[in-house]
Amino acid sequence: MKELKQAIEKQDHLMASLQLAKVFQPDTCQPDNYQHIVELWVERARKFVGSTEYTARSFNRFIQFFYVELAFSGDEKNYFSCQYSLLDHVLDYRTGIPVSLAIVFQSIGKRLGFDVCGVNFPGHFLLKCRFQNHPDIYVDPLNGKLLSRQDLESMYFAILKEMEDEKMPEEALHEASCAETIVRLLHNLKASYINEKCYSEALIAVELLVNLCPNDPYERRDRGFLLHQLDCTQVAIADYQYFIRKCPKDPATQLLQAQLQQLSEQASAVFH
Predict the structure, then answer these.
(1) What single-letter DSSP state applies at residue 185?
(2) Cα distances (angstroms) measured from residue 188 to each of 82, 114, 192, 209, 216
(3) How far apart are CA 151 and CA 154, in angstroms?
(4) Each residue of 74-84: pLDDT tens digit?
(5) For residue range 20-41, what is the model confidence (pLDDT) as tens digits?
(6) Which residue in 145, 139, 135, 134 sits closest to 121, CA to CA?
(7) Measuring CA to CA, which residue among 95, 98, 72 is closest to residue 83?
(8) Does the global pTM surpass 0.85?
């Protein structure tokens, strides 16, 4: 956790993601080795792009290098597999989900000198590259497709549902910090492990989220659920109670209150 937080503080997206992968695979993930691999790709990319000018044209060359020469892509058939959120697997197999692919793309792009960053867009993490004399370019990390303003608005309202006279807020296109990116990656990991019924690993993910977002009651709720699955009843009760206190009007609260009553009766039966 110490190395992960240090990398986040340094805004080092690649190292933070590799340190996160190491938490789940302490015996096999070697962050320094993967850093070296990425540095070799940077040298190849520099030769492929050719130009030292940071223009839209040279950026398009870099997109071609990443998605054609290196052959990075998304696997839409197994979208929820945990391996696509563990960066060592993403680098090994050159396959990932939007946020993990964006981390690799951004890390190489920045080393080349492009002003490229991730965007914590609702439902689909994006890439953005800024230029001095050209409008910002938005990229879908899954396939390298350039996205128009109309594309972005369609994606936004497909997730959040269009309301009359409502516009997509500019904040939706702001740069994602390293902390926000890692939290997004962790949310995907947590969901993947829960989907695969790997509750111990999901608990590690949610513990990290509680550590990084200590005031988020929804992470405490999710930790309660996982602790409940792992028969850690007393601690699960405490997390459920915290969520109910903080979110009394949430639709899940009534269900959790019934769950809490049942758990309390079970715990009481055990102690008596």
Answers:
(1) H
(2) 8, 27, 6, 11, 17
(3) 5
(4) 987 777 899 99
(5) 999 999 999 999 999 999 999 9
(6) 139
(7) 95
(8) yes
